[in-house]
Amino acid sequence: xxxxxxxxxxxxxxxxxxxxxxxxxxxxxxxxxxxxxxxxxxxxxxxxxxxxxxxxxxxxxxxxxxxxxxxxxxxxxxxxxxxxxxxxxxxxxxxxxxxxxxxxxxxxxxxxxxxxxxxxxxxxxxxxxxxxxxxxxxxxxxxxxxxxxxxxxxxxxxxxxxxxxxxxxxxxxxxxxxxxxxxxxxxxxxxxxxxxxxxxxxxxxxxxxxxxxxxxxxxxxxxxxxxxxxxxxxxxxxxxxxxxxxxxxxxxxxxxxxxxxxxxxxxxxxxxxxxxxxxxxxxxxxxxxxxxxxxxxxxxxxxxxxxxxxxxxxxxxxxxxxxxxxxxxxxxxxxxxxxxxxxxxxxxxxxxxxxxxxxxxxxxxxxxxxxxxxxxx
Length: 377
Hints:
alpha/beta; Rossmann fold; six-stranded mixed beta sheet; 14 strands; globular
């Protein structure tokens, strides 16, 4: 009999938390035959990623996953064999009592945030707190051996490569979004938090000798784009041109379509955690807008990833990439660092694909979680 899994997701950053848990739940069902209940406290945010979700329902099945509303008044519920608290969310007290009441206690894991910091390897898989005899374990996604790996569906990289080799497929997909880039234009995507450094980047793109078509999924960065354009409103479907730069606002799309969008683009600016990982699977140069934390501790995570990611780059290419990422995450001036990055574009493009294949050779996160459970029992 396959194990039953409960995954708890408290939506904090709109789409990152639910994005990760929704991908994980689907993969556990589709590839490992697990029975999965996904408890979500914000179905409205979930609906953006999965439009089929009915936000009025307390229980529904989507792609084989038993999706449950996480209510304020917790009902009596039998605990599953494996319990995942995503991103250190606090489980309902009633559910914790149900875990302790089981004849065989469940495996309880805290699926933590993704980090490239050295200490993650030493903490991955270690026991944490106990609740009435139920032991919780740390489970860390990561980029190194000795961590839980990254979310990656079976065959993903093969599908991506086939898509990127087929210009007709890419054109057909873009046309479904109303995107018709000029011949030879650099195609870029921008999904980010608010950023005061955006104007300097758009300025240099508009003045560039190469045309750029910038695709912006509906989100928090639109206000900054609107101010730079000097217009009163900016909404889905709008297309604006300034010099060599064309800006186009896209609707928020489901996860599979977002993957295809990343695969189409020559460069992707992403944010948070879920889109950060998906940009790496695209095998193209990218820019990460990390979620800000108190006392700037997020910058340690940024630097740790950059140290790992830039291994193998020439010193000038590494300097250009690091400068761009640091400027973007400090709301700094992007003009000089973007121009320097363009000087090393071929090397950075080859490196992005190499990094993707290297990470793709490691066990994926869902498989690592299942293996952890098998080892535990």
